[in-house]
Amino acid sequence: EYGVPVGWDFLFKRDYWRSEATVDHTDSCSTRRKSVSSRNSIGKPIVHVNHLVKKFGHDKIAVDDVSFNLYENQITSLLGPNGSGKTTIFNCLIGMYKQTSGSITIDSEDGMDFDTRANMEMLRKSMGYCPQHDILFDLLTIKEQLEFYATARGFGKNKERIAKEMLYLVNLQGSQELYCNSLSGGMKRRLSLACAFVGDTKIILLDEPSSGLDPS
């Protein structure tokens, strides 16, 4: 009645962006859930948010005592109405805001936990981020934007290969020479998503990633 149902992880599948495969949606919801569960085993927790509080000034509480874990090989959705503090939580996770109280710790490659307030360099190496509003350089082409992000993340020697892979992922390879200031809103959103995946980081944070998308 309301269209063709898709799996919960449709946004992260290549065929959603590229229309390369035809998916049979005749299975029941329970069958789809079982299939997804068999493909994605939940690993250990790698991000720990404990009693997070963020205040602006003395009386504006944006985040009030929030705790959760993010797990390896799992997609976690943060849901809430406008103004409930979702983007503020993201900004605390990436180090843009310093939390008023509480802690955010992330597991490093060697299994040690580190606090984001004291290890910003390690934090930036561990995360990719797509902000709610696109942050792109107007006078760079799509390809140059991706190569810039690859270089900034320490992959300058492989920037052309990485840019090619990301262009293919979001189906922008035919537009790679267009300047960012000439892109539609949907194309900018796809480029922002591609930038978040540059560097093969183990944690990807996406703030309203489907807003304004025009999949083709």
TrEMBL record:
Q: Which residues form a coiled coil?
A: none
Cross-referenced PROSITE patterns, in alphabetical order? ABC_TRANSPORTER_1 (PS00211), ABC_TRANSPORTER_2 (PS50893)
Question: GO CC: one term?
Answer: membrane
Superkingdom, according to UniProt? Eukaryota
Stretches assigned to the ABC transporter domain: 47-216
Question: What GO annotations for molecular function exist for this entry?
Answer: ABC-type transporter activity; ATP binding; ATP hydrolysis activity; lipid transporter activity
Q: Which UniProt keywords apply?
A: Repeat, Transport
InterPro entries per the record?
ABC_transporter-like_ATP-bd, ABC_transporter-like_CS, ABCA, P-loop_NTPase
Q: Which Pfam families match?
A: ABC_tran
Keyword Transport found: yes
- This one is known as ABC transporter domain-containing protein
Organism name: Rotaria magnacalcarata
